[in-house]
Amino acid sequence: MKYFPFLWATLWRKKIRTLFTLLSIVVAFLLFGVLETVDYAFSHPSVGASGADLLITTNKFSITLPLPFSDAQQIRSVPGVTETTWISWFGGYYQESKNFVFAAPVDTDSYFNLHKGDFIVSDAEMRAYRDTRTGALVNVALMKKFGWTVGDKVPLHSTIWTQKKDGSLDWTFDIVGTFDAKDPIQASQQASTLFFHYELFDEGRSYSKGKVGWFEERVADPAQSAAIANRIDALFENSSDETKTQPAKDFMMAFMKQFGDIGFVLRAILGAVFFALLFLTGNTMMQSVRERVPELAVLKTLGFSDGSVLRLVIAESLLLCVTAALIGLALSYGALPILKQGLQGVELSPIALLPGIGVAVLLGVIVGLPPAVRAMRLNIIAALADKH
Amino acid sequence: MFKQLWAVSLMSLQTLPQRIGASSVIVIGIAGVVAVLVSVLAMGAGFRHTLADSGREDRAIILRGGSDAELNSVLTRSDIDTIGNAPGIAKDADGKALLSSEIITVVNLPKKDTGTDANVTLRGVGLKLTEVRPELKIAAGRMFRPAVRELIAGVGAAGQFRGLEVGSVLHLRNADWTVTGLFTSNGDIHESELLADVDTVGSSIARSAYSSAVALLASPAAFTEFKDALTTDPQLKVDAQREPAYYAAQSKDLSKAINVVGNTVAVIMAIGAMFGALNSMYSAVAARGLEIATLRAIGFGALPVLLSVMIEAVFLSLLGGVLGALLAWALFNGHSVSTLGGAFAQVVFKLTVTPTLLVTGIIWACIIGVLGGLFPALRAARLPVADALRAA
Questions:
Q1: How many domains does chain B have?
Q2: Judgement on whether residues B79 and B227 belong to the same structural domain of the protein
Q3: FRET pair for A11, CA 20 to 30 Å: which of A194, A288, B6, B371?
Q4: Is A284 an interface residue toward B (CB < 8 Å)?
Q5: How far apart are the C-alpha atoms of B176 and B173, rounded to whole Å?
Q6: C-alpha distances in Å from residue A339, one per residue of A334, A344, B162
Q7: What pLDDT score does B386 carry?
Q8: Do A35 and A69 sit in the same domain of this protein?
Q9: C-alpha distance from residue A73 to each of A85, A235, A306 (Å)
């Protein structure tokens, strides 16, 4: 530690060169931070604080095919399942197809019982929702996005479901209240959700009655999830609608994996970045040591051992790399809010930044080693005589 | 002036090997930027290419009005009959409309690389399939037969998902389906799909209505007449689109997203590489200080010296740019990947390093070279001659 001022001074011997090298490393680690955070988000899907004990049952053959509503009774009787509910995909949008609305027809009792404690909704508005057949509970963020107010009648276009009464794809709902999710991750995932009554949906649509999109189950003990999932699937084995039940987290993971091997792409990019950085930083360190040969010889003359000269040069390289890495990682941490806007519904965790420090240390050592070895082997007489 | 420029530039390039370390920083740094840029954009280009190659101007896709995508659409049997009688549609020798009524569903198949389930389109197609889609060719095995549970798989799908070899059996919704053949389809989106007889698919998923219809028209110009007939029929609520327009709309969002990501990452990397280039060029100018001062002393102008530094920077950048572009091409061109496309199903596509992308990459390299060379070049031009000579 006592050599810190000395290292700092030698590092800035050539200010411009060190500055540019530093900035290159900063940029590399900014990129590292951003890409690793994205990779982490895609490989660690978040289901929020209350998602650990949640299972999802879909049609085994195809996620787009429905399941019979009557499955609910059988699923409910499976030991370990405390509640089950059902939803269908509505495929809704407001006015234009870019205004996606996750309009979810839900069974009021079972859905809000299963998600007890997940939502913030006033008792009065919940009562109004229960009492209004065409009522809708809308996420506060969605209300704001479209400038809706409680009491509004809003038409939503479904890309799938025609109405029995007139064959129309446009469904009208009365906004009777708003909700927000307690968990911040769920809040961002639910930002475009609108709940409405499953009864209205099933009675109103012109086909596929008595079918549901998927089931959700709450289990008493998350450790038993796999066993319970197997028990549920066993119920429907060899029926015409076999099921596939998995923890909500696995379901999301499988969905994200469908986008492709994002991790590979990101790591390939970082590979290219760090390969180039090795050369860049390595060249700077090599040059810097080359210019300081007489100084290093003086240090040795003063009694510094070969080992301590080696350590000094490596320490200098480490100081440069780690300082720059910390700045770069801090910048990428600062960029998280911008990223969040682009990637809604995934959890961006700063945990992904930690390996960056390890990478910086590795980089510092690899880059510092060749010039350090050169400095260590320096012959004092030859060096002082400028014959190196 | 040009003579001077020529002499100075030649001298600086000839002394390059002496500054191999610093010079390679520029080459490798820029090669990295260009390789990443070109590879990522090749993903977008490949995806766009696959969807742009899907469909012909003289083929129309008909969906229920307001449905956006085939997966959401529902057409009844009587809708199909009406569509088949519309004017403008091509007819076979027996006078039957060249129309394929189709049912789209999505099946779960494990991906070869990860083993996790992915959504693969199973498309039920009408008997007129090969006349409506003449680009479809059996590459191995044979065509499926109607009324039995047989299907053919696109070569793209067969490459990405497990269990799609000729003769293998898929267990789909409580029934066994035999893969009887593999097909190619001009590299379009259907190569990511499984095709089978429409009525067999319909009965196996308990669906009596169709999803969509694909009609071959008498000519590209017949589309207007065809569309007008459908949209003015009060009995029908359908949208008719030319296939290329339909598929272009499906690819828009994803290829835009890929381009934004690719360009953003490349800009950030380019900034890093520019700092590297600045360093290298400053040290090149410093190393050549005596040489530059001598040239100035014997009457060479400031401009040729400035330009020679720029030329060196751009030359090294070009070298890096070409290296990076070639690297991207050699490593990834034609590499098959798949992702979730607009229609909620996997689209298999090949990374395509187009000539445009190669040129784009090399242009980027030049820009980085110019930016990285400019300030060191200015310094070289302003070098006080006497001081530099004395310092040596």
A1: 2
A2: yes
A3: B371
A4: yes
A5: 8
A6: 10, 9, 35
A7: 83
A8: no
A9: 10, 11, 79
Q: Which of A65, A260, A268 sits opposite B105 (nearest CB)?
A: A65
- What chain B residue is nearest to A18 in terms of C-alpha separation? B279
Lowest mean pLDDT, pick from A10-14, A86-90, A130-134, B124-128: A10-14
The residue of chain A nearest to residue B175, with distances taken between CA atoms, is: A240
* Predicted local confidence at residue A190, as pLDDT: 86
**Do residues B174 and B291 both lie within one domain?**
no
Which region among A278-282, B15-19, B146-150 has the lowest average model confidence (pLDDT)?
Answer: B15-19
pTM listed for this prediction = 0.85
DSSP strand E in chain A: where? 54-59, 67-68, 81-87, 92-93, 100-106, 119-120, 135-139, 153-158, 170-181, 193-197, 211-212, 214-219, 243-247
Q: Binning pLDDT at 50, 70 and 90, where does residue B325 land? A: very high
Instruction: Name residue A174's beta-bridge partners.
Output: A135, A153
Q: Residue B137, SS3?
A: strand
SS3 B138: strand
Cα(A71)–Cα(A375) distance, rounded to whole angstroms? 75
Mean pLDDT of chain A: 90
Alpha-carbon distance values, A166 to A207, A314, B296 (Å): 13, 78, 88
Residue A378 pLDDT grade (very low, low, confident, very high; cuts 50, 70, 90): confident
> Which of A257, A275, A297 finishes a domain?
A257
Q: Which pLDDT band, with edges at 50, 70 and 90, does B14 fall under?
A: confident
Q: In terms of C-beta density within 10 A (0-12 exposed, 13-18 middle, 19 or more buried), how is residue A324 classed?
A: buried
Q: Does A63 touch chain B (CB under 8 A)?
A: yes
CA dist A341 and A345 (Å) reads 9
Residue B190 included in any domain:
yes
**What are the CA-CA distances from residue B146 to residues B122, B197, B201 (Å)?**
15, 5, 10
Q: What's the pLDDT at B192?
A: 94
Assign A338 a pLDDT band (cuts: 50, 70, 90).
confident
**Residue where the block lists tokens 């289901």:** A47
Domain membership of residue A138 as a residue range: 54-257
Pairing of strands A211-212, A67-68: antiparallel
3-state secondary structure of B333: coil
Q: At what angle do helices A306-342 and A293-301 cross, to 10 degrees?
A: 130
Tell me, yes or no, if A335 comes closer than 8 A to chain B by beta carbon: no
